[in-house]
Amino acid sequence: MASLGELERAVMDQLWSADGPVAATELRAGLADRGVALTTVHTVLTRLEQKGFVTHDEARPRRFTARASREDHAAELMHEVLGQAADRQAVLARFVGSVNEDEARMLRELLARG
Amino acid sequence: MLPVTAAALAVLAALLAWPVPALLGRARWPARDPLVALVCWQALGLAGGLSIIGALLVHGLAPWGHSLPEAWWSWVRGEAAGDPVRGDHWVTMTLAAVLAVELVGVLALSGYRTARTRRRHRELLELVVAPGAAPDTRLLEHPAPVAFCIPGARPLLVLSSGMVAELDEAELAAVVAHERAHLREHHHLYLLPFVAWEAALPVLPAAGRAHAAVRELVEMRADDVALPELDGTDPRRTLAQAIVAAAGRPGAEVPGGALAVTGGSVRARVVRLLEPPAPLTPAARAAALLGAGLLLLLPTALLLLPAL
How far off is chain A from B147, nearest CA to CA, in Å? Predict the structure, then answer.
């Protein structure tokens, strides 16, 4: 039995590679090798909707779309990590911030000297 | 005489709001023992909050008794004041309440917001990136050399592909050890009050100074904790190389505002790794810790003991 996290990733992978909105039954077909029930697919979709990663249309049956591409999500995350946003402390432990050109040269000289 | 206690607390508050943090911020010894310095900063922050709120409260409640507990109890039970109550008593009492609520409220809000942002980041990461060899480590596709961790019940350690490309095996191990040190010692908790109080008291330069100092010390501490875990002949040099490599190649998306802020502290970290300062002597360590203890004890004693 796959974990919910894995299933969420698998569903998102399908939504990302699909050309348009996808129905839950199609998603289940895509997950056939995992043998998940349709209710499980719906549970996963509901969770993804709550997290704001997925939306559905009003067609019957409902069809689902990813809100943003994988690259957009990665870029969003990196933007927050790299930026000086008000909540930058949330990501406490960025290994090291970036420095400007002069500082970088000075640091390399320091290293070469030692 | 409660007014004397209030005056003493006010003097202490003034010292802790400006000269003391300025001195500690400029001192050189914290780089020799970041952990002791972190303890001192925590004590300083707590003592500062206690003394300013305490000074206002004690002045406000002075007409009701001769010690704060006595006056407080008498006020709570609605007893008549022994001395005439003037307008300034009400004003300082209100200020004390407002300040206490603000400090505690901002701390709670900041903690809540931070937890929410971390949860969001973790969700994003778990969705975008499949787990790597280690279940708590993720490799994020991005050209900027970045490493960070998301603290919490299920911490995540994240390396960017740019970081992996930039560093060799030993340097990467140093980065990972550094990040794990943050997680293991819960450094995010050391930072939380200073983040909150900088937000609560933007007019107080000491709040920003304290936040910056604590942030720098936490990084130094993580460097120290990481070093003994590294293999190789010169782990200090390896870690310094990793820092310089990661800091010197900003990715395309690094905003300009982020640059200048980190420069000085990155340099301090590298210098400290290459030319390690002598650690504090046990006596100096004990003195610093004793100072931190006294710093906390002083306002507490002023608040609780019978009036001077």
Answer: 5
